[in-house]
Amino acid sequence: GLTAIATAIAKDPEGLDPTLLSSLVSSHASGLDILAIGNGENSVVNVSVECVEKTVKELLTLYDYVVVDCGYGVTMTNQPVFELATHILTISQINALPLRRTKILLDFLSNNGLGSDKIHLIVNGYSSFYSTALRESEHFLQQKAYFLIPNDFEVTTRAINEGAPLDLAAPKAKITKCFRKLGASFLEDRL
What we know:
The protein is α/β, with parallel strands linked by helices. It contains nine helices and five strands, in the order ααββααβαβαβααα.
């Protein structure tokens, strides 16, 4: 399970090599490979900063693109991920709790010398109804929204329930097209 993977990596970070890492990765039918390190905030295994750094560096030797979900927690363990990242996406919604969490993350990144040039605010669940709240949120966060993901609860819920990415579950949906456009905006940087 997830705890076994985290334990295998945490036990001997120096022994981590492309072969071991490849054996811990799960492949999804969509073509994505996934390395699940823990169960989020309830993860039992503590992974060191050095272990995270080594894991991300090894992943970068195996893949053209590495996406790391750091969850809600802002810890020093995440520091190597932020330092090695080409782009840092902060995803928020326009309501109090997500905005407060996003502000904490943005302040952490700023206080740790991570430049705003690689930080991108993504607003999830957006509709034009929130246009005034969006401006107020951008002012509060001192960060302009890089991308707006539309609110499409029905399509998203269906994809989750089917266990399928939006690209397969609803390829023509507005939200799917939006995610493709977001992904393409980062691909352009690599060309």
